[in-house]
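Researcher: Let's do a round of design. I'm pasting the structure tokens now; please hold your answer until I've finished.
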């Protein structure tokens, strides 16, 4: 074991914990407001020296009084700011600023790899740009104290066993009864938040129009569409405030810039608690206001605040030592939510799911294999959660036929099309994880399905398991989103209702600026790529890979998403 590397990572994790628990530092960046309405905190991670400086920025933008009682933290907007270390300190002096909206159940931390890669690639081309990864306002409810401890067992004890960390005790996950203010947190407030943040950070509208590129991933493309068509001063005759006049161009990452969810088929699983929009806008809003309908999107297993936290905890183990045997499965609580989620993700077939045996804790797995089982496209059965980070190694694997059989093509938009695999020997060998850049090497066993189909190949693996772990575990703003506003989706689903339709004041704004569309070759739009958009297609990429892909790919070439973003930032057209 390389102890110097281990010590270095431990030190960085400790530094991160100190930054997160001691409170934000008042910004000293040139041009920043030195008052109590803005803070900027350096972010320390185990990222390689790539010439990129990262910080977390918080700007006080109170909600209207009509939203009612909410935590004080929810009157602040947050984003992760990535900039060239050799570039200017002030954002206004950057050559370009990319402003990214996250997708469904996604936080700012998910942009870590693509943000770093894009800023670094632009610097190689002589441009000093910034990448701002936005966090939705509702993420103010998340408690990262346990994750910030840097130790996954401490984190589990904090969230599940009442252990104090840094003098704090976990208050529990926030129930629907305490989310009344989120009943009004829909598309109108979401795009208003983006506008208010931009206006606060870059007060000069002409500069915004010249330097800002607006975009996002997944649902972030639709939010960008509504932003582009919005009017922010209440007078459609004046257009300096119009959304499209805050941007020099748009970018869409495995999505399209539009005001429809049609291109995101499969991004919302059928078993979530999403209300029936057939009730109509008024009835849905009344249900949200009263609490009869859930104000935060979740599912009985896999997609809820508790299980989202487990992804970060799994990432912590891989950050510390990706090749060490994992102790997490044995340390997890035995509650119904966690156990049902483990069964869903780690059952070979329906019989195993129903019996619960063998369970994940019956297998010997490294920290990397645990994280890979939770996130890789040859393991996790939901397409919008999949990334391509390598494959199991160290022992025999078999086809995973639950919840759908390999080769069935059942609901490809939801489950994806990649063959799924699972370790075959409980209480047997130590299953390791073969990282993306070792797939296809001379020592690769080349695992195949029972029908002879290779489970994967070098051209299908694009993301580094260590980078993914870092994004999940080390960012002060989450990779995932524990409290996604139900109203944000129902508003867009009810786009033809007068209450939502009125928000599209400048429909021409969607095409008023040049757009870069980058699609994952195996992502949500696979097989139905809108040719009229002239998209860049990243071959072999899954839906998350457009955010998580490594800077150098297995073909030896630079990562295409960040390469094209950097090129577009230089000359939007």
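Researcher: That's everything. Go ahead.
Model: Designed sequence:
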């Amino acid at each position: 074991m390389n102890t110097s590397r281990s010590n270095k990572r431990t030190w960085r994790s400790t530094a991160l914990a100190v930054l997160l628990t001691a409170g934000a530092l008042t910004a000293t960046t040139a041009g920043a407001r030195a008052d109590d309405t803005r803070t900027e905190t350096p972010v320390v991670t185990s990222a390689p020296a790539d010439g990129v400086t990262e910080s977390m920025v918080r700007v006080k933008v109170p909600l209207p009084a009509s939203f009612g009682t909410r935590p004080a933290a929810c009157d602040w907007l947050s984003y992760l700011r990535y900039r060239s270390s050799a570039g200017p300190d002030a954002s206004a002096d950057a050559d370009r600023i990319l402003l990214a909206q996250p997708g469904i159940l996604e936080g700012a931390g998910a942009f870590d790899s693509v943000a770093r890669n894009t800023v670094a690639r632009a610097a190689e081309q002589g441009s000093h740009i910034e990448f701002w990864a936005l966090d939705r306002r509702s993420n103010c409810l998340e408690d990262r104290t346990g994750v910030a401890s840097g130790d996954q067992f401490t984190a589990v004890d904090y969230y599940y066993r009442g252990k104090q960390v840094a003098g704090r005790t976990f208050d529990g996950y926030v129930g629907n009864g305490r989310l009344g203010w989120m009943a009004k947190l829909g598309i109108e407030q979401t795009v208003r938040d983006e506008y208010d943040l931009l206006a606060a950070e870059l007060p000069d509208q002409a500069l915004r129009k010249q330097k800002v590129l607006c975009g996002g991933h997944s649902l972030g493309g639709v939010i960008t569409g509504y932003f582009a068509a919005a009017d922010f001063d209440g007078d459609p005759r004046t257009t300096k405030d119009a959304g499209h006049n805050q941007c020099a161009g748009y970018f869409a990452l495995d999505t399209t810039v539009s005001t429809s969810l049609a291109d995101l088929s499969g991004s919302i699983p059928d078993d979530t608690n999403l209300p029936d929009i057939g009730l109509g806008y008024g009835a849905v809003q009344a249900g949200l206001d009263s609490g009869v309908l859930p104000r935060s999107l979740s599912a009985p297993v896999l997609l809820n605040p508790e299980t989202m936290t487990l992804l970060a905890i799994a990432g912590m183990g891989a950050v510390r030592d990706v090749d060490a045997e994992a102790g997490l499965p044995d340390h997890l609580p035995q509650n119904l939510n966690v156990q049902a989620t483990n069964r869903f993700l780690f059952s070979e077939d329906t019989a195993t799911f129903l019996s619960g045996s063998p369970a994940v804790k019956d297998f010997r797995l490294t920290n990397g294999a645990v994280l890979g089982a939770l996130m890789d496209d040859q393991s996790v059965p939901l397409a919008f959660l999949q990334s391509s980070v390598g494959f199991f190694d160290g022992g025999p694997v078999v086809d995973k036929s639950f919840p759908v059989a390999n080769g069935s093509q059942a609901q490809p938009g939801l489950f994806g099309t990649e063959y799924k695999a699972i370790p075959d020997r409980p209480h047997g060998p130590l299953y390791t994880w073969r990282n993306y850049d070792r797939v296809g090497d001379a020592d690769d066993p080349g695992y195949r399905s029972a029908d002879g189909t290779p489970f994967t190949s070098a051209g299908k693996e694009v993301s580094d398991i260590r980078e993914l772990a870092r994004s999940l575990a080390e960012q002060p703003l989450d990779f995932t989103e524990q409290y996604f506003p139900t109203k944000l989706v129902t508003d867009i689903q009810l786009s033809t209702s007068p209450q939502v339709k009125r928000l599209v004041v400048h429909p021409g704004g969607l095409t008023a600026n040049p757009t870069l569309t980058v699609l994952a070759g195996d992502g949500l739009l696979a097989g139905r790529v809108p040719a009229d958009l002239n998209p860049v297609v990243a071959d072999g990429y899954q839906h998350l890979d457009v955010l998580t892909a490594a800077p150098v790919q297995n073909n030896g070439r630079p990562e295409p998403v960040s390469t094209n973003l950097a090129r577009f930032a230089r000359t939007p057209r």
